[in-house]
Amino acid sequence: MEEYNLTCIRCPMGCSLKVTVDGSEVTVTGNTCPRGADYGKQEVTAPVRTVTSTVPVAGGEIPVVSVKTAGDIPKDKIADVMKDIKKASVTAPVKIGDVIAGNAGGTGTDVIATKDIKAR
Amino acid sequence: MNKRSIVIIGGGPAGLAAAVSAYDSGERDILIIERDDHLGGILNQCIHNGFGLHTFKEELTGPEYAARFISQAEERGIECKLDTIVTDISAGRYVTYMNGEEGIVTIEAGAVVLAMGCRERPRGALGIPGFRPAGVYTAGTAQRLVNIEGKCVGKRCVILGSGDIGLIMARRLTLEGAKVLCVAELMPYSGGLQRNITQCLDDFDIPLLLSHTVSRIYGKERVTGVDISEVAEDRSIIPDTAVHYDCDTLLLSCGLLPENELTRQAGIDINRVTGGPDVRDDLETSEEGVFACGNVLHVHDLVDYVSQEAMRAGKMAAEYVSGRRKTDGFELKLVTDGGVRYTVPQYVSPAQMEDSLTVRFRVDKEYRNKKLCVYLGGRQIRQQPKNIVKPGEMEQVIILKKDLETAKPEDTVKICLED
Fold first, then answer.
1. What single DSSP character describes residue B348?
2. What CATH number is given to the structural domain containing B377?
3. How many structural domains does chain B have?
4. Which residues in chain B have Cβ-Cβ distances shorter than 8 Å to A7?
5. Which of A2, A78, B350, B364 lies at a C-alpha separation of 20 to 30 Å from B148?
6. CB-CB contact of B199 with A8 (8 Å)
7. Residue B304 carries which DSSP code?
8. Which residue in B284, B259, B287, B417 sits closest to B347, CA to CA?
9. Least CA distance to A47: which residue of chain B?
């Protein structure tokens, strides 16, 4: 049986979680919401993160647009996702939700814009 | 002179939420004055996720959270003046602003909502010896340069201060390809949220050095390195503990200060601990008809709470200008003891308050297994267990109107931690 003390990162409450793994049985205590239980289980089995960054915009009112992975990606794929984000660029106008890089890092998750950028 | 019903100073999360809420409370003549060329304030540069779980029940990035409130303001047709700075608020709520098109203009406001936010403690306020080379930035300045202006701030970085923006920038710069050597924190605890230590430092094996500070900055044209020393309990540097780090960049994340120059100029009472104005339960300052919300009132950890607070300020301002507000009865002062550093609000009117009041507060250090107690006069009216409280995380307690029914004018409401 293994025990992990984690801080939930699903929201800024940052609950202190105790996660116990006994074979295939994973129990989470210390969470105040179901998201915390999911996070605890996920974190000790296959941890995931949302990646945020920026991508250059041609002809925009500002030179970069903020982006995020449309969902969580495996933590060990962060570097691969960043490689694809660094290769990407777009032309203004950009709308929130526009796909900036499809299937980033081979994760099956798209990188999407999180800011509207008007053309200059 | 031009008259406006409600003038809101600042178009960040607090100002936008206050405007939307004032509108939804029936007020139509609302003006937001914003000095930047965009609405949304600092959220526009906070491109990380984690915003909006309370307000929108989903996890958003800063720009997305801002966009939601900007569209709410736009849908209501609320007027905003961008690139416009307020230079003075004077008695009688005369607000003077200036911009490139109108020059200097003074308007008479029925009510004013202060929503100017906060700014970072700069190097000059920290007293670090050494030259003044390029490469020393406050974390928020670096954040703006990287996330909005698309610039690179450095390749090898040391971060002083473990405030949330510093932690977020440690991850951001690492993802951008820079090497973040360490985060040094003067205090024996982090100034930021635990979740940010987990996902911004631990995920990338960036060390957090508690009870350490930068004791010297090297470099004349550009930063070439810093010394980091241990500090004693009294925060003085312990001699001969300096370790040298070669780096080209030093980020400072050493606290946020509510931006209250206008408030002071207006002669409004400022709280010594929060750095923001003293307010009553309806968020009115010591000046009648002037309300405050968001980080100008006290520095928040969570924008969701800023929005909630600002919604109340907007509603209260609308009630004030419409004459719906009842002004009767006395005010009680909220006092603190036993580890509680401050409360917001600082005053409550038992007759005027809503059925329940959320009092927000911070503690002076980490405590475990305490009880949070509220007393009216000498009588306990509320008690709740607190397994752990930390200075970096804002706490709250609810006070009910019915608990204050028996209050006498000479009473105080005391909020404290007990064993």
1. E
2. 2.60.40
3. 3
4. 194-195, 197-198
5. A78
6. no
7. H
8. B284
9. B203
- Tokens (6 digits) for A51: 């990646």
Give pLDDT tens digits along chain B (419 positions): 799 999 999 999 999 999 999 999 999 999 999 999 999 999 999 999 989 988 898 899 999 999 999 999 999 999 999 999 999 999 999 999 999 999 999 999 999 999 999 999 998 888 888 888 999 999 999 999 999 999 999 999 999 999 899 999 999 999 999 999 999 999 998 888 888 998 999 999 999 999 999 999 999 999 999 999 999 999 999 999 999 999 999 999 999 999 999 999 999 999 999 999 999 999 999 999 999 999 999 999 889 999 999 999 999 999 999 988 877 789 999 999 989 999 999 999 999 999 999 999 999 988 989 999 999 988 999 999 988 888 878 999 999 999 999 999 999 999 999 98
Look up the CATH number of the domain holding residue B230. Answer: 3.50.50.60
Helix, strand or coil, per DSSP, at residue B222: strand
Hey, which residues 121-150 in chain B have their CB within 8 Å of chain A?
146-150
Read off the amino acid at residue A54. T
d(C-alpha B125, C-alpha A1), whole Å: 51
C-alpha span between B146 and A63 (Å, rounded): 10
Domain hosting residue B130, numbered range? 122-254
Say how many Å lie between the first and final Cα of chain A, rounded: 59
Tell if the CB–CB gap between A52 and B61 is shorter than 8 Å.
Answer: yes
What is the ipTM metric for this complex? 0.91
Q: Which residues from chain B sit within 8 angstroms of residue A8, using beta carbons?
A: 195
Select from A51, A54, A82 the Cβ nearest to the Cβ of B147. Answer: A54
Domain final residue pick, B325, B359, B382: B325
- In chain A, the domains with their CATH numbers are 2-45 (no CATH), 52-113 (3.10.530.10)
User: Which residues of chain A are within 8 Å of residue B176 when distances are taken between CB atoms?
Assistant: 53
Between CA B240 and CA B230 the distance in angstroms is 9
- CA distances to B11, B132, B286 from B277, in Å: 19, 34, 8
- Residue A22 C-alpha, separation from nearest chain B C-alpha, in angstroms: 24
